[in-house]
Specification:
Number of strands: 0
Helix content: 55-70%
Distance between the termini: 31 Å
Radius of gyration: 19 Å
Oligomer: single chain
Shape: globular
Order of helices and strands: HHHHHHH
Mean pLDDT: 78
Structural class: mainly alpha
């Protein structure tokens, strides 16, 4: 997670869609560039990937920068975001589709690549979902409470076989005890509620999301 300015003790729990979108883009850029590095190194060494167009760093940076600029320019008209962000989002989705096709060929780094793909896929799906369903204010979250969070992510492009069957998403359901009658085979949580929890977790912090203890605390009372 990106480090942010501010004092951690002054963080608030205000659902700000712009902060969430900006955080999502920062994470997507970080993970996509890591994917790009892995693929570029292995494609050069082993000539595994025939189409490298969407693995070029400049394409990733350009589309994410374009999304940032679009968000910045539509402060007073957030309802226009869905239409004008479709192009860059589609390009990033095409990039991830290419990543998915290359994952099976890169067995030596497949686990690391798989993790990065899952993070990027979920992040882009949340971003697209916020745009398409016009979740621009906290009150808008109720509009998607009629669908389970995983179903909502799948609706907006998340890979059901890989990204929706993973640790990060399962940890959210576990943390909220979001299973019908405690049945682990029946995860179920309102998409709006899950988005609010995960959105606040991702975007409301100041400084760092987590901090490492600098001294041993076992002797503290």
């Amino acid at each position: 997670m990106p480090q942010k300015p501010g004092n951690p003790s002054e963080a608030n729990e205000v659902f700000n869609f712009k902060n969430i979108l900006q955080t999502l883009l920062a994470m997507l850029k970080k993970w996509s560039l890591k994917i790009n590095f892995i693929l570029s190194v292995h494609s050069k060494e082993q000539n595994l990937l025939a189409n490298e167009t969407y693995y070029k760093e400049k394409h990733i940076k350009y589309n994410i920068k374009e999304l940032k600029n679009l968000i910045r320019r539509t402060n007073t008209h957030p309802e226009k975001l869905e239409k004008i962000t479709n192009g860059p989002i589609s390009q990033l989705r095409k990039y991830l589709d290419n990543v998915l096709s290359g994952m099976t060929e890169l067995s030596s780094v497949n686990l690391n690549l798989r993790h990065l793909y899952i993070y990027s896929d979920l992040t882009l799906s949340v971003f697209r979902g916020i745009m398409n369903d016009k979740i621009f204010h906290e009150d808008d979250l109720v509009k998607i409470n009629n669908i389970d969070f995983s179903k909502w992510l799948e609706k907006h492009g998340a890979n059901p076989k890989i990204s929706l069957n993973n640790g990060p998403l399962k940890s959210l359901y576990d943390a909220l005890f979001a299973y019908e009658n405690g049945n682990l085979l029946k995860p179920n949580i309102e998409a709006g509620t899950a988005l609010r929890v995960s959105g606040l977790f991702m975007a409301s912090y100041q400084g760092g999301l987590m901090y490492k203890m600098q001294v041993n605390n076992k002797g503290c009372n």
